[in-house]
Amino acid sequence: MQSRAHAHAFDWETSVSTWLTRLAPTYQIPSRKPQALGLPLAEPIETKRRLAAIFAADVEGYSRLMGADEVATLDALTARREILDGLIASHGCRIANTAGDSVLAEFSSAVDAVRCAMEAQGALAKANSTLPESGHINFRIGVHVGDVMVRAGDLFGDGVNIAARLQTLAKAGGALCLRCDL
To answer: Contact 60/139 with Cβ under 8 angstroms?
Structure first.
C-alpha cells in the first residue's frame, strides 16, 4: 500500500505529464544559435591572405603620462590621433585596429606607409612644440611589409607581430624602424 505522500507525488507527476502533452503541440522552442559555456558561438568568418605594408604606432611613456594627468593626456592623445588618423586617410589607407594609445594601419604601398610615418612625425612634433616636454605625446612607428591574414577587417599574423616589434625599437618622435619580407 502506498503512503499518502507518495501517492500525492505520483498524482503531481501525472498532472505535469498531462499538461506537457497538451502544451507540446502548440509550443515551439525558439531556434537559437549554438552556444558554448553560455556564450553564442561566432559564425565562421572568411580569412584572406594578402601582402601589405603594416604601420604600427604607439605612444612612448603613455602609462607614465596617464599616471601624471589622465584628462590632459587623453585630450592630448585625442588631438594627436586626429592628426595621425587624417594623415593615414590622406594616403588612401585604413586603420585596421586601435587599442588605447596604439594604432595599426594597413597600406597597399610601402612607400606610402613610410611617407605617412615621416609626415606624421613632423606634424606630431609641431603639435608638441606648444607643450612642455613632460606633456609631449611622442609616437614610435614601425613599418613592415609582409604577408597578413585579414578577417572581418582585422589584421593577424606574423607580419603584424613584426611591425609591432619594430615599433618598440623605433626612436619616439623620430626615426622609423623598417623591415620587408618578401
So the answer is: yes
